[in-house]
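Deliverable D5.2: sample structural annotation.
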Amino acid sequence: MRRALLTARLGLLLPLALAACVSESVERPVGMDLAQPTVSRAVEAWEVVDHGRVIGTVVVFEVESRGGERFFQVRNAHQQDVGMVDAEGRWWRFEPHVARPVWLGSGTIQDGVCEILGVPTETPFFDVPIETLAHEARDAAAAASQK
């Protein structure tokens, strides 16, 4: 009888003891309290056209807090971000399921955009009003919500 009571008590105390072993930790990146958001605005856009077909779009952003420094967002024909070219002429491609962009090289903006989109470097770019891209994005979102 005593043994059964002792076993029952141990059976009740064991889950309680195991639950007490759980710990939780919260990690924050170093200097996160000092982080400042970077505000940029789209100032220009170009369409990349190969054999009469729009292959992609380049949206030029200006970072106001850095004296108008520019970077170039590269989008595919579906307006998905596929890469970027920074103010120093470095090119990166965003790969699916990869945490960091893949560095492709350095050079001119046109060479970088063409490398990211996989088209010849002589592929022409044509100016597009920023407002056109905004309207196209809204129209696509509206069409998708109707389905």
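Annotation notes: The chain has a mean pLDDT of 83. The radius of gyration is 27 Å.
The annotation will be released with the project's public dataset once the embargo ends.
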